[in-house]
Protein backbone atom coordinates (compact mmCIF):
# COMPACT_ATOMS: atom_id res chain seq x y z
CA UNK A 1 0.00 0.00 0.00
CA UNK A 2 2.94 2.33 0.58
CA UNK A 3 4.74 1.76 -2.74
CA UNK A 4 2.16 3.49 -5.01
CA UNK A 5 2.17 6.49 -2.71
CA UNK A 6 5.93 6.70 -2.99
CA UNK A 7 5.65 6.43 -6.74
CA UNK A 8 3.14 9.30 -6.88
CA UNK A 9 5.40 11.47 -4.73
CA UNK A 10 8.33 10.75 -7.00
CA UNK A 11 6.35 11.57 -10.14
CA UNK A 12 4.89 14.79 -8.60
CA UNK A 13 8.19 16.33 -7.44
CA UNK A 14 9.56 17.15 -10.95
CA UNK A 15 6.31 18.87 -11.88
CA UNK A 16 6.35 20.92 -8.71
CA UNK A 17 9.97 21.91 -9.29
CA UNK A 18 9.17 22.96 -12.88
CA UNK A 19 6.22 25.02 -11.63
CA UNK A 20 8.34 26.67 -8.96
CA UNK A 21 11.08 27.37 -11.50
CA UNK A 22 8.60 28.93 -13.92
CA UNK A 23 7.13 30.99 -11.09
CA UNK A 24 10.60 32.22 -10.14
CA UNK A 25 11.36 33.11 -13.76
CA UNK A 26 8.15 35.11 -14.07
CA UNK A 27 8.89 36.84 -10.80
CA UNK A 28 12.38 37.71 -11.99
CA UNK A 29 11.06 39.02 -15.30
CA UNK A 30 8.54 41.25 -13.51
CA UNK A 31 11.22 42.46 -11.12
CA UNK A 32 13.55 43.24 -14.03
CA UNK A 33 10.80 45.12 -15.88
CA UNK A 34 9.97 47.09 -12.74
CA UNK A 35 13.63 47.90 -12.18
CA UNK A 36 13.94 48.94 -15.82
CA UNK A 37 10.98 51.30 -15.49
CA UNK A 38 12.33 52.78 -12.27
CA UNK A 39 15.75 53.22 -13.90
CA UNK A 40 14.17 55.10 -16.80
CA UNK A 41 12.32 57.38 -14.42
CA UNK A 42 15.51 58.00 -12.40
CA UNK A 43 17.43 58.79 -15.60
CA UNK A 44 14.80 61.25 -16.81
CA UNK A 45 14.55 62.94 -13.41
CA UNK A 46 18.33 63.12 -13.12
CA UNK A 47 18.67 64.62 -16.59
CA UNK A 48 16.02 67.22 -15.77
CA UNK A 49 17.74 68.10 -12.51
CA UNK A 50 21.08 68.36 -14.30
CA UNK A 51 19.59 70.90 -16.71
CA UNK A 52 17.73 72.86 -14.03
CA UNK A 53 20.44 72.79 -11.37
CA UNK A 54 22.72 75.46 -12.93
CA UNK A 55 19.93 78.03 -13.01
CA UNK A 56 18.89 77.28 -9.43
CA UNK A 57 22.47 77.39 -8.14
CA UNK A 58 23.26 80.53 -10.12
CA UNK A 59 20.17 82.44 -8.98
CA UNK A 60 20.65 81.32 -5.38
CA UNK A 61 24.44 81.70 -5.35
CA UNK A 62 24.24 83.85 -2.21
CA UNK A 63 22.97 80.74 -0.38
CA UNK A 64 24.41 77.77 -2.26
CA UNK A 65 27.97 79.00 -2.88
CA UNK A 66 28.69 79.67 0.83
CA UNK A 67 27.01 76.38 1.72
CA UNK A 68 29.13 74.29 -0.66
CA UNK A 69 32.29 76.17 0.35
CA UNK A 70 31.47 75.63 4.03
CA UNK A 71 30.95 71.90 3.45
CA UNK A 72 34.35 71.59 1.78
CA UNK A 73 35.97 73.60 4.56
CA UNK A 74 34.31 71.32 7.12
CA UNK A 75 35.68 68.23 5.36
CA UNK A 76 39.14 69.82 5.21
CA UNK A 77 39.33 71.22 8.75
CA UNK A 78 37.53 68.50 10.74
CA UNK A 79 40.69 66.35 11.15
CA UNK A 80 42.56 69.39 12.49
CA UNK A 81 39.73 70.13 14.90
CA UNK A 82 39.79 66.50 16.06
CA UNK A 83 43.52 66.75 16.77
CA UNK A 84 43.07 69.97 18.72
CA UNK A 85 40.22 68.37 20.68
CA UNK A 86 42.47 65.37 21.43
CA UNK A 87 44.93 67.79 23.05
CA UNK A 88 42.28 68.68 25.61
CA UNK A 89 40.64 71.74 24.07
CA UNK A 90 36.85 72.02 24.25
CA UNK A 91 35.00 71.29 21.04
CA UNK A 92 34.09 74.95 20.46
CA UNK A 93 37.67 76.15 20.91
CA UNK A 94 39.02 73.31 18.76
CA UNK A 95 36.61 74.21 15.95
CA UNK A 96 37.44 77.89 16.27
CA UNK A 97 41.17 77.13 16.31
CA UNK A 98 41.00 75.04 13.13
CA UNK A 99 39.14 77.82 11.37
CA UNK A 100 41.60 80.42 12.71
CA UNK A 101 44.55 78.44 11.29
CA UNK A 102 42.93 78.39 7.87
CA UNK A 103 42.15 82.11 8.05
CA UNK A 104 45.73 82.88 9.08
CA UNK A 105 47.16 80.98 6.13
CA UNK A 106 44.68 82.61 3.75
CA UNK A 107 45.35 86.15 5.01
CA UNK A 108 49.12 85.63 4.87
CA UNK A 109 48.92 84.35 1.30
CA UNK A 110 46.74 87.25 0.18
CA UNK A 111 49.02 89.76 1.90
CA UNK A 112 52.06 88.39 0.10
CA UNK A 113 50.24 88.81 -3.21
CA UNK A 114 48.28 92.02 -2.74
CA UNK A 115 50.98 94.16 -1.15
CA UNK A 116 53.39 93.96 -4.13
CA UNK A 117 50.43 94.22 -6.51
CA UNK A 118 49.46 97.58 -4.99
CA UNK A 119 52.98 98.92 -5.56
CA UNK A 120 52.86 97.78 -9.18
CA UNK A 121 49.44 99.30 -9.73
CA UNK A 122 50.95 102.73 -10.45
CA UNK A 123 53.16 101.22 -13.16
CA UNK A 124 50.25 99.76 -15.12
CA UNK A 125 49.94 102.69 -17.59
CA UNK A 126 53.66 102.52 -18.39
CA UNK A 127 53.50 98.73 -18.79
CA UNK A 128 50.41 99.02 -21.01
CA UNK A 129 52.18 101.58 -23.20
CA UNK A 130 55.22 99.31 -23.51
CA UNK A 131 53.01 96.35 -24.45
CA UNK A 132 51.30 98.53 -27.07
CA UNK A 133 54.69 99.38 -28.57
CA UNK A 134 55.63 95.70 -28.73
CA UNK A 135 52.39 94.86 -30.48
CA UNK A 136 52.96 97.80 -32.84
CA UNK A 137 56.31 96.29 -33.74
CA UNK A 138 54.68 92.95 -34.39
CA UNK A 139 51.95 94.64 -36.41
CA UNK A 140 54.55 96.37 -38.55
CA UNK A 141 56.20 93.03 -39.19
CA UNK A 142 52.88 91.62 -40.44
CA UNK A 143 51.62 94.76 -42.18
CA UNK A 144 51.24 92.84 -45.41
CA UNK A 145 48.42 90.80 -43.81
CA UNK A 146 46.44 93.98 -43.06
CA UNK A 147 47.05 95.29 -46.56
CA UNK A 148 45.83 92.04 -48.07
CA UNK A 149 42.72 92.18 -45.88
CA UNK A 150 41.96 95.75 -46.96
CA UNK A 151 42.44 94.85 -50.62
CA UNK A 152 40.14 91.86 -50.25
CA UNK A 153 37.49 94.01 -48.57
CA UNK A 154 37.77 96.59 -51.38
CA UNK A 155 37.34 93.94 -54.06
CA UNK A 156 34.29 92.47 -52.30
CA UNK A 157 32.77 95.92 -51.93
CA UNK A 158 32.08 95.81 -48.20
CA UNK A 159 30.44 99.09 -47.11
CA UNK A 160 31.75 101.04 -44.16
CA UNK A 161 29.69 100.16 -41.10
CA UNK A 162 28.82 102.26 -38.15
CA UNK A 163 30.55 101.60 -34.89
CA UNK A 164 28.25 101.17 -31.91
CA UNK A 165 29.78 101.79 -28.50
CA UNK A 166 27.93 100.51 -25.45
CA UNK A 167 28.36 102.33 -22.17
CA UNK A 168 29.36 99.80 -19.52
CA UNK A 169 30.41 100.27 -15.90
CA UNK A 170 34.09 100.74 -15.28
CA UNK A 171 36.23 98.13 -13.53
CA UNK A 172 36.28 100.12 -10.29
CA UNK A 173 32.50 100.55 -10.40
CA UNK A 174 32.01 96.80 -10.85
CA UNK A 175 34.30 96.13 -7.86
CA UNK A 176 32.38 98.67 -5.77
CA UNK A 177 29.05 97.06 -6.67
CA UNK A 178 30.28 93.50 -6.03
CA UNK A 179 32.14 94.13 -2.74
CA UNK A 180 29.12 94.13 -0.34
CA UNK A 181 27.76 90.89 -1.79
CA UNK A 182 31.19 89.22 -1.62
CA UNK A 183 31.69 90.31 2.00
CA UNK A 184 28.28 88.93 3.00
CA UNK A 185 28.93 85.60 1.23
CA UNK A 186 32.35 85.24 2.85
CA UNK A 187 30.94 85.94 6.32
CA UNK A 188 28.11 83.46 5.79
CA UNK A 189 30.58 80.86 4.54
CA UNK A 190 32.84 81.11 7.60
CA UNK A 191 29.89 81.12 10.01
CA UNK A 192 28.46 78.02 8.34
CA UNK A 193 31.86 76.34 8.40
CA UNK A 194 32.32 77.07 12.11
CA UNK A 195 28.93 75.66 13.09
CA UNK A 196 29.40 72.61 10.84
CA UNK A 197 32.84 71.88 12.30
CA UNK A 198 31.50 72.37 15.82
CA UNK A 199 28.61 69.97 15.09
CA UNK A 200 30.80 67.27 13.50
CA UNK A 201 30.69 64.99 16.57
CA UNK A 202 26.90 65.10 16.79
CA UNK A 203 26.64 64.51 13.05
CA UNK A 204 28.89 61.44 13.25
CA UNK A 205 26.88 60.09 16.16
CA UNK A 206 23.67 60.65 14.23
CA UNK A 207 25.02 58.87 11.15
CA UNK A 208 26.33 55.93 13.13
CA UNK A 209 23.75 55.24 15.82
CA UNK A 210 20.48 56.44 14.29
CA UNK A 211 20.47 53.87 11.49
CA UNK A 212 18.03 50.97 11.28
CA UNK A 213 20.70 48.28 10.92
CA UNK A 214 24.32 47.76 11.83
CA UNK A 215 25.26 47.32 8.16
CA UNK A 216 23.90 50.73 7.21
CA UNK A 217 25.78 52.30 10.14
CA UNK A 218 29.04 50.72 8.99
CA UNK A 219 28.39 51.87 5.41
CA UNK A 220 27.59 55.43 6.54
CA UNK A 221 30.78 55.57 8.61
CA UNK A 222 32.80 54.21 5.70
CA UNK A 223 31.36 56.73 3.25
CA UNK A 224 31.94 59.64 5.62
CA UNK A 225 35.54 58.57 6.32
CA UNK A 226 36.31 57.97 2.64
CA UNK A 227 34.95 61.33 1.53
CA UNK A 228 36.76 63.18 4.31
CA UNK A 229 40.06 61.37 3.74
CA UNK A 230 40.00 61.69 -0.02
CA UNK A 231 38.97 65.35 -0.25
CA UNK A 232 41.22 66.42 2.63
CA UNK A 233 44.22 64.50 1.28
CA UNK A 234 43.69 65.92 -2.20
CA UNK A 235 43.42 69.54 -1.07
CA UNK A 236 46.42 69.29 1.28
CA UNK A 237 48.59 67.46 -1.26
CA UNK A 238 47.71 69.76 -4.13
CA UNK A 239 48.19 72.75 -1.83
CA UNK A 240 51.72 71.60 -0.97
CA UNK A 241 52.52 70.97 -4.64
CA UNK A 242 51.21 74.40 -5.62
CA UNK A 243 53.19 75.99 -2.79
CA UNK A 244 56.29 74.35 -4.23
CA UNK A 245 55.40 75.69 -7.68
CA UNK A 246 54.99 79.16 -6.15
CA UNK A 247 58.40 78.96 -4.51
CA UNK A 248 60.07 77.89 -7.76
CA UNK A 249 58.29 80.65 -9.71
CA UNK A 250 59.29 83.24 -7.10
CA UNK A 251 62.91 82.08 -7.20
CA UNK A 252 62.90 82.09 -11.00
CA UNK A 253 61.36 85.56 -11.14
CA UNK A 254 64.01 86.82 -8.71
CA UNK A 255 66.78 85.22 -10.78
CA UNK A 256 65.43 86.78 -14.00
CA UNK A 257 65.12 90.19 -12.40
CA UNK A 258 61.33 90.37 -12.54
CA UNK A 259 59.73 92.86 -10.17
CA UNK A 260 57.77 91.53 -7.14
CA UNK A 261 58.84 87.87 -7.34
CA UNK A 262 56.82 86.95 -4.23
CA UNK A 263 53.66 88.22 -5.91
CA UNK A 264 54.29 86.12 -9.02
CA UNK A 265 54.97 83.06 -6.89
CA UNK A 266 51.72 83.55 -4.97
CA UNK A 267 49.76 84.04 -8.18
CA UNK A 268 51.27 80.88 -9.65
CA UNK A 269 50.35 78.89 -6.52
CA UNK A 270 46.74 80.14 -6.46
CA UNK A 271 46.08 79.87 -10.19
CA UNK A 272 47.50 76.35 -10.22
CA UNK A 273 44.45 75.23 -8.22
CA UNK A 274 42.35 75.84 -11.36
CA UNK A 275 43.07 73.01 -13.82
CA UNK A 276 44.16 73.98 -17.34
CA UNK A 277 42.68 77.49 -17.20
CA UNK A 278 44.84 78.72 -14.30
CA UNK A 279 48.22 77.93 -15.91
CA UNK A 280 47.04 79.51 -19.18
CA UNK A 281 46.07 82.69 -17.32
CA UNK A 282 49.45 82.71 -15.52
CA UNK A 283 51.26 82.33 -18.83
CA UNK A 284 49.29 85.25 -20.27
CA UNK A 285 50.05 87.48 -17.28
CA UNK A 286 53.76 86.70 -17.40
CA UNK A 287 53.86 87.26 -21.15
CA UNK A 288 52.11 90.65 -20.92
CA UNK A 289 54.26 91.79 -18.00
CA UNK A 290 57.43 90.62 -19.72
CA UNK A 291 56.55 92.40 -22.96
CA UNK A 292 55.74 95.52 -20.95
CA UNK A 293 59.02 95.63 -19.05
CA UNK A 294 61.67 94.00 -21.29
CA UNK A 295 63.61 95.72 -24.06
CA UNK A 296 62.82 93.14 -26.74
CA UNK A 297 60.06 90.67 -27.47
CA UNK A 298 62.36 87.66 -26.98
CA UNK A 299 63.50 88.80 -23.55
CA UNK A 300 59.93 89.58 -22.56
CA UNK A 301 58.74 86.06 -23.37
CA UNK A 302 61.49 84.28 -21.40
CA UNK A 303 59.58 84.28 -18.02
CA UNK A 304 56.43 82.92 -19.67
CA UNK A 305 58.41 80.25 -21.52
CA UNK A 306 60.18 79.23 -18.30
CA UNK A 307 56.83 78.95 -16.52
CA UNK A 308 55.42 76.75 -19.29
CA UNK A 309 58.41 74.43 -18.91
CA UNK A 310 57.92 74.29 -15.14
CA UNK A 311 54.19 73.60 -15.47
CA UNK A 312 54.82 70.84 -18.02
CA UNK A 313 57.14 69.02 -15.62
CA UNK A 314 54.81 69.58 -12.64
CA UNK A 315 51.61 68.51 -14.39
CA UNK A 316 53.02 65.45 -16.18
CA UNK A 317 55.69 64.14 -13.78
CA UNK A 318 55.48 65.55 -10.24
CA UNK A 319 51.75 65.67 -9.57
CA UNK A 320 50.84 62.23 -11.06
CA UNK A 321 53.68 60.54 -9.17
CA UNK A 322 52.63 62.10 -5.84
CA UNK A 323 48.87 61.78 -6.12
CA UNK A 324 48.97 58.32 -7.67
CA UNK A 325 46.06 56.33 -9.01
CA UNK A 326 43.77 57.18 -6.08
CA UNK A 327 43.12 60.69 -7.39
CA UNK A 328 43.37 59.89 -11.09
CA UNK A 329 40.38 61.34 -12.91
CA UNK A 330 39.48 61.64 -16.54
CA UNK A 331 40.55 64.97 -18.06
CA UNK A 332 37.16 65.09 -19.79
CA UNK A 333 35.37 64.90 -16.43
CA UNK A 334 37.66 67.59 -14.99
CA UNK A 335 36.92 69.91 -17.93
CA UNK A 336 33.18 69.23 -17.66
CA UNK A 337 33.20 69.99 -13.92
CA UNK A 338 35.38 73.06 -14.51
CA UNK A 339 33.13 74.51 -17.21
CA UNK A 340 29.95 73.52 -15.34
CA UNK A 341 30.78 75.18 -12.02
CA UNK A 342 32.58 78.12 -13.65
CA UNK A 343 29.41 78.80 -15.61
CA UNK A 344 27.41 78.74 -12.39
CA UNK A 345 29.68 80.57 -9.91
CA UNK A 346 32.54 82.05 -11.92
CA UNK A 347 36.04 81.98 -10.39
CA UNK A 348 34.90 80.46 -7.03
CA UNK A 349 33.20 77.69 -8.97
CA UNK A 350 36.42 77.02 -10.88
CA UNK A 351 38.33 76.69 -7.60
CA UNK A 352 35.68 74.36 -6.13
CA UNK A 353 35.13 72.24 -9.24
CA UNK A 354 37.78 69.55 -8.63
CA UNK A 355 37.05 69.11 -4.87
CA UNK A 356 33.35 68.78 -5.69
CA UNK A 357 34.19 66.22 -8.40
CA UNK A 358 36.32 64.21 -5.96
CA UNK A 359 33.52 64.28 -3.36
CA UNK A 360 30.95 63.03 -5.86
CA UNK A 361 33.36 60.35 -7.10
CA UNK A 362 33.90 59.05 -3.56
CA UNK A 363 30.15 59.02 -2.93
CA UNK A 364 29.39 57.17 -6.16
CA UNK A 365 32.03 54.53 -5.38
CA UNK A 366 30.10 53.58 -2.22
CA UNK A 367 26.52 54.30 -3.25
CA UNK A 368 26.86 52.94 -6.78
CA UNK A 369 27.40 54.78 -10.02
CA UNK A 370 24.71 54.71 -12.71
CA UNK A 371 25.28 52.34 -15.60
CA UNK A 372 24.55 54.91 -18.33
CA UNK A 373 26.20 53.06 -21.22
CA UNK A 374 24.61 49.73 -20.32
CA UNK A 375 21.25 51.40 -19.84
CA UNK A 376 21.27 52.50 -23.48
CA UNK A 377 21.71 48.86 -24.54
CA UNK A 378 18.94 47.51 -22.32
CA UNK A 379 20.66 46.94 -18.99
CA UNK A 380 19.28 48.38 -15.72
CA UNK A 381 20.51 51.83 -14.74
CA UNK A 382 21.15 50.59 -11.18
CA UNK A 383 21.60 46.89 -10.45
CA UNK A 384 19.41 46.20 -7.44
CA UNK A 385 20.61 43.90 -4.70
CA UNK A 386 17.26 42.08 -4.64
CA UNK A 387 17.54 41.20 -8.31
CA UNK A 388 21.07 39.91 -7.92
CA UNK A 389 20.09 37.96 -4.81
CA UNK A 390 17.18 36.42 -6.69
CA UNK A 391 19.42 35.35 -9.52
CA UNK A 392 21.84 33.74 -7.08
CA UNK A 393 18.99 31.90 -5.35
CA UNK A 394 17.68 30.63 -8.66
CA UNK A 395 21.09 29.35 -9.67
CA UNK A 396 21.55 27.71 -6.27
CA UNK A 397 18.15 26.02 -6.45
CA UNK A 398 18.53 24.71 -10.00
CA UNK A 399 19.22 20.98 -10.34
CA UNK A 400 22.76 20.05 -11.33
CA UNK A 401 23.40 19.47 -15.00
CA UNK A 402 24.06 15.95 -16.28
Polypeptide structure, described:
By secondary structure, this protein is mostly helical. The protein is built from 15 helices and no strands. Mean pLDDT is 75; it is low at 5-9, 163-167 and 384-402.
Taken as a percent bin, the fraction of beta residues is: under 5%
The end-to-end span amounts to 33 Å
Residue stretches low in confidence (pLDDT < 50, at least 5 long) are 5-9, 163-167, 384-402
Largest sheet: none
What global shape is seen? globular
Sum this structure up briefly.
This protein is mainly alpha-helical and 402 residues long. The chain has a domain of 91 residues.
Tag the structure with descriptive keywords.
84% helix; 15 helices; 402 residues; mainly alpha
List the helices and strands and how they pair.
Layout: H1 2-59, H2 61-86, H3 91-121, H4 124-141, H5 143-156, H6 171-198, H7 200-209, H8 214-256, H9 261-271, H10 277-293, H11 297-323, H12 331-345, H13 347-367, H14 372-376, H15 385-397
Amino acid sequence: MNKPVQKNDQTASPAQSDTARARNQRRMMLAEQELRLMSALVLLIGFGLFLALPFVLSIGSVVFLPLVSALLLTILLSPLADRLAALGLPNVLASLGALAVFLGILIAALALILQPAVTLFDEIPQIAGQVGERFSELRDEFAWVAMANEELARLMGDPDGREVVLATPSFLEEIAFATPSVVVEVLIMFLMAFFMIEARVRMRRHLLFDRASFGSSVKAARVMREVQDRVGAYIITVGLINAGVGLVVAAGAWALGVDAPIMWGGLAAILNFIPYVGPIAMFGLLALFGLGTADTVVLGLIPAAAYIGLHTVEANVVTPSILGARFTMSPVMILIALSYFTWIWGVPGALLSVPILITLTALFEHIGSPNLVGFVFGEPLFRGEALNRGLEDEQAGAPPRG
